[in-house]
Amino acid sequence: DIQMTQSPASLSASLEEIVTITCQASQDIGNWLAWYQQKPGKSPQLLIHSATSLADGIPSRFSGSRSGTQYSLKISRLQVEDTGIYYCLQRYSNPWTFGGGTKLELK
Amino acid sequence: QVQLKESGPGLVQPSETLSLTCTVSGFSLTSYNVHWVRQPPGKGLEWMGVMWSGGSTDYNSALKSRLSISRDTSKNQVFLKMNSLQSEDTTTYYCARANWEAPFDYWGQGVMVTVSS
């Protein structure tokens, strides 16, 4: 199975700050990487697919990038509504696997 | 609009079989794949398996011996059956839509299942 190591596990940041979350894949997964945001008691929401493509309706302050087998989600100017838990997902091979999650809070 | 809704029992006895239904609207099961994902309370997400648009299935190898996914396209429903339930199967189960471009662009609201006697 492909392991997705997500860091940090938790993060506290201030409004308007730049936030970066990373996922390290245990092997090459190409661009088969997506990012999700989950708020308490809610289903996850797709933010980024294909490593760098913004999902429909997602604000442009969210962006995704790739460097080899390391993937990053960047929030350019943190807003109140951006708090929650973020997950990466690889769908390069079965079983599809998620990162362990990053809990993002406001400082 | 696109909707997915899970339904099923909230409580299952240990060693028994869980049966869940995902009823979809706003899209065709023959055009989109429907996956099942679960999440234990306070923990992360686990991919369980998929009903591909063509009618075939794939399963997480960790669950494969206990899991079965099927569908009824005439009713716009995808079914999950998992046997030999144990306490660690106490979790929220989600169904979610995917295609080649966008994985899990729409999710159901989830159904919480507790395994307990």
Relevant terms:
heterodimer; A: 107 residues; mainly beta; four-stranded antiparallel β-sheet; globular; B: 117 residues
Helix content of chain A: under 10%
**Which sheet architecture does the biggest sheet of chain B show?**
7 strands, mixed
Radius of gyration over C-alpha positions of chain B, nearest whole angstrom: 13 Å
Distance between the termini of chain A: 36 Å
Mean pLDDT over the residues of chain B? 97
* Count of discrete alpha- or pi-helical segments spanning 4 or more residues of chain B: 0
Low-pLDDT residue spans of chain B: none
Morphology call of chain B: globular
Mean pLDDT of chain A: 97
Q: What portion of residues of chain A belong to β-strands? A: over 45%
Total DSSP helices of chain A = 0
Strand content of chain B: over 45%
Largest interface (CB < 8 Å): A-B, 23 and 21 residues
- Secondary-structure element string of chain A: EEEEEEEEEEE
The residue fraction in helices of chain B comes out at under 10%
What is Rg of chain A?
13 Å
Question: Structural class, from helix and strand content of chain B?
Answer: mainly beta
Oligomer: heterodimer
